[in-house]
Write a structure and sequence with these properties.
Oligomer: single chain
Mean pLDDT: 77
Shape: elongated
Strand order of the largest sheet: 1-2
Number of domains: 2
Order of helices and strands: EEHHHEHEEEHHHH
Low-confidence stretches: 1-20
Radius of gyration: 19 Å
Largest sheet: 2 strands, antiparallel
Strand content: 5-15%
Length: about 170
């Protein structure tokens, strides 16, 4: 809410908002009653089915039940690993800005249709569709990229993890 954004997860009986949670956790919250009757853990496969069904199911007004989904990406894991490796290697200037830990924006994608969601599901499906390949990952490690700073690391990670950039670099259409 402080940034003016939230993800609202909704089913027939409940609405929920988890401000700092990915869609996966919001789905689990929204369908908690139903999930408890089935099982308490929702898998990634169930998440995909739930999102697809929500995009394709019309509400009583004839509109899709889900108008947009906010998806966190595996890029945040890659960035975290790069930060850890840079710290282990002693390249502290890549993780600190003015002596304080660098702050990075969370990498999210906003999806507005089942067609776009289907494209996004092609990302990270095999080694040719990873958000960052090995050479790109090396660009986030000072051992391989001597000019790397905390600012250039942040800029590189955000640019290369944008949905448009990933689609273009990986040839996803």
């Amino acid at each position: 809410m402080k940034n003016g954004m939230a993800y609202i997860s909704k089913d027939r009986d409940m609405e929920s908002v988890a401000l700092d949670a990915p869609i996966f956790q919001n789905i689990a919250i929204s369908g908690l009653d139903r999930n408890q009757r089935i099982k308490p853990i929702i898998s990634r496969k169930q998440e995909k089915q739930y999102v697809n069904n929500s995009f394709n199911t019309l509400n009583s007004n004839g509109n899709p039940s889900l108008s947009a989904a906010i998806l966190t990406t595996s890029g945040k894991i890659t960035l975290s690993l790069a930060l850890v490796l840079n710290g282990i290697y002693g390249d502290i200037d890549t993780v600190l800005v003015d002596g304080k830990p660098a702050v990075y924006d969370i990498m999210v994608w906003i999806c507005y249709s089942p067609e776009e969601y289907a494209l996004i599901n092609k990302v990270d499906s095999d080694e040719n569709s990873y958000i960052f390949n090995a050479d790109e990952f090396k660009q986030m490690i000072k051992f391989y990229n001597e000019d790397l700073t905390a600012d250039s690391l942040r800029d590189f990670a955000l640019e290369y993890s944008s949905l448009e950039s990933v689609f273009e670099r990986r040839g996803i259409h």
